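[stage:ingest] chain + small molecule (FE2/S2 (inorganic) cluster)
[stage:ingest] validated
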Amino acid sequence: MTKNPYQPMLATVIAIKEEVGGNRAIKTFKLEFQDEKVKENFNFLPGQTIMISLFGIGESMFAISSSPTEKRYIEVSVMKLGKVTNALHEMSVGDTVGARGPYGNHFDIEGWKKKNLLFIGGGIGQAPLRSLLNYCLDNRNEYDNLEVIYGARTSEDICFKEKFDEMQKQQDVDVHLSIDVQEEGWNHFVGFVPANLQRLNPSPENTIAITCGPPIMIKFVIQNLLELGFKENQIYTTLEMRMKCGIGICGRCNIGNVYVCKDGPVFSYDQLKDLEGDM
Ligand SMILES: Cc1cc2nc3c(=O)[nH]c(=O)nc-3n(C[C@H](O)[C@H](O)[C@H](O)COP(=O)(O)OP(=O)(O)OC[C@H]3O[C@@H](n4cnc5c(N)ncnc54)[C@H](O)[C@@H]3O)c2cc1C
Ligand code: FES
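[stage:predict] done
[stage:export] tokens:
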């Protein structure tokens, strides 16, 4: 009998970290597969996603936010939005979830060796970038300059703040944070992410720019990157269309003739610009 592709594997929540509080809270869930063979053999690459199910409630797709260099567990960083994500935020260490995947394509970690990588994220859009960034930090000699431009609405909304602080101290990554409106004590940039990008004026020379965040941010980031001289095949983004099956069957996530779940979610602007009319 062939295996049911919708059948999830069981995973235990082994740690929960609150990244951001408030209305649009974000938590990172560390998940360990219960089956010893799955735990040993589960492989993924940065950029890939996983469908998490909460029994009796529903399932949702998330980027795997941990690096594949961290073995025996995966992490997902989840913003509380609706039915599934609210229920996930109510979970405790020791609870069980379903997980099926990994799905989709991934960032080109091999092809980007010896290049400068410019990460441009906004809000929860940093989740898939975190997997790639942590992977690069664990293989630091393989990549040239690593630079992060990250923005959130307020300082309270900055996701993975401790990691950014640590990277700034260790100085092996240039980190440029921003918030939308001035706050007392904030001594980084104030304004939107595309404006911070324009101000920093990074060189396109031997550089790949990877961006993820709200669609409006992505639109203006890409526009500014092109103005800075980045070529279409030097710009990558990862898309978050609504998904159901995650495996190219239901037809829910198509843009033109492309299924985001299996042909993406990672696309170069080169590929994406031809699909813009269908988005
Ligand atoms: C490839 C991919 C990667 C993703 N990675 C992450 C991640 O790392 N972290 C994270 O927090 N979320 C991520 N998402 C979005 C996540 O899947 C949705 O937030 C989640 O499904 C919402 O489920 P819900 O039942 O809580 O909300 P619902 O009750 O279904 O909806 C609540 C609100 O969220 C909106 N919404 C629902 N699904 C999506 C979606 N896919 N994209 C945009 N808006 C949506 C609805 O329109 C509605 O306004 C990703 C989605 C995809 C497809
Ligand atoms: S989510 Fe079903 S085809 Fe992509």
